[in-house]
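[audit] Reproducing an earlier prediction to check determinism. Same input, same settings, fresh worker. If the tokens differ from the archived copy the diff job will pick it up downstream; this log only records the rerun itself.
[audit] input (213 residues):
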Amino acid sequence: MEPDRRRGRTGRDGDGEGPRQRIQGELRQLRESRTREGNRQQRTETAHGTAVRARLDQPRTGKPSLFSLPAYDPEAFGQLSERIARFLGTGRFIVWMTVVVVVWIGWNTLLPENVRFDDYPFIFLTLVLSLQASYAAPLILLAQNRQDDRDRVNMEQDRARAERSIADTEYLTREVAALRQGLGEVATRDFVRSELQSLLKELDERRETAELL
């Protein structure tokens, strides 16, 4: 009987381990087949010259062309434009620009002709000032747009805070009204005192009545 029991127990253990190993083997074969299929597809796409993405959650990076614009960081460019716009709106910029214009005109008017580089009517100076104005206007507009975006975000946050404060105020108002309604049903000190006094009077009357009888 012992060999039969051992044989039966071994058979059950073998039957228990066989399906597990078979499932693991099938999963391993499925992974290998998917890996081979992915490698085959990748080689096919590479052979045809198409862009290959290893994962679907990563953006496809195209090849840079001759006519594509250079990549830049919009946030860094916006911060730089705001810095320049703030400097253009200060008195320091006006003072420095006035000094440059005065030195420019004095250099090309008072010094000898062999050292002058922009004679009257100062065409080069006009070109420089026009170039400076043509760059200053878009930078100022960009800084204003960023400031408008920040103001819009701040207004939305203020509106959200105002809505939350209104909701909290309404909730507190309802709670105070419920407390007042609940306190109206609670016995006050004066009411308890008056009830006790009436009970004492009633007891005194009964005592007097009992004494008379």
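[audit] rerun output stored. Observation attached for the diff report: The chain is about 80% helix and 0% strand.
[audit] end
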